[in-house]
Amino acid sequence: MIEFRKVSKVYPGGTVGLNNIDLKIEPGEFVVIVGLSGAGKSTLLRSINRLHEITSGEIFISGKSITSAEGRQLRVMRRGIGMIFQSFNLVKRSTVLRNVLAGRVGYRSTFRTLLGLFPKHDMDLAFGALKRVNMLEKAYQRADQLSGGQQQRVSIARALAQEATIILADEPVASLDPLTTRQVMDDLQRINREMGITTVVNLHYIDLAREYATRIIGVRAGEIVFDGTAAEATDDVFSAIYGRPVSEAERLGGKTDEAI
Ligand SMILES: Nc1ncnc2c1ncn2[C@@H]1O[C@H](COP(=O)(O)OP(=O)(O)OP(=O)(O)O)[C@@H](O)[C@H]1O
């Protein structure tokens, strides 16, 4: 379980990123966080693995405080949390396999990983992860030879090789076209269902949020203003989260800004 207890984040300069958040996410949930740009979605997501440090309150992962964790304990907690970024964050000149093996770095000494000495167990995990996202045949290609969608699937495989029990995905499909977007979301959903990995995703398309989430959390000005099922998240609810009517650009199936 991920638990926020009275969590606030104030950025230097005074911007409130999170305002007194209380939140519990149960194992195996597929949570989608929605809200306008600047609402605090990234801050919320990145607080979970301490990519952003919070200002007050406490965050617990499986009952242990990650907020007060240090050194080895923090590293062990962090390696259980996979992170997926909009920009994929792969080493572009390395092979797909090496990128996936990077998920094992938290388990091995720096010396061994620098030399590329990965035991069979790690290789098995890496190949198994690539298989799950249908990327096995690309294992020896360079990451920069792949399409955006394929690169994102490699980053999902890296999180699987990491044996993450939680996956955080910050706008994972924002750089992808509609078809590839669905493939990546389908991968995340399949992994969530088959492996029970708790998944927390920031998205800005409301139809995708409804389609994939088991729970939608609406954020506005650093506060949770909606927390419910996809069925409860009607257009009116989204308008309330956004503080304005939903625009067609917020639907994947809809027109883009330029086309309006
Ligand atoms: N490093 C920073 N320094 C100062 N203010 C920041 C910083 N990062 C974010 N903020 C501010 O905190 C608020 C929340 O930002 P956050 O990135 O969490 O929003 P978001 O909902 O993820 O938006 P987007 O969809 O545009 O990424 C915004 O007002 C933003 O300008």
From TrEMBL:
GO terms for molecular function: ATP binding. Residues 2-246 form the ABC transporter domain. It comes from the Bacteria. Keywords: ATP-binding, Cell membrane, Membrane, Nucleotide-binding, Phosphonate transport, Translocase, Transport. The keyword Membrane applies. Pfam families: ABC_tran (PF00005). This is Phosphonate ABC transporter ATP-binding protein. It comes from Cohnella silvisoli. The gene is phnC.
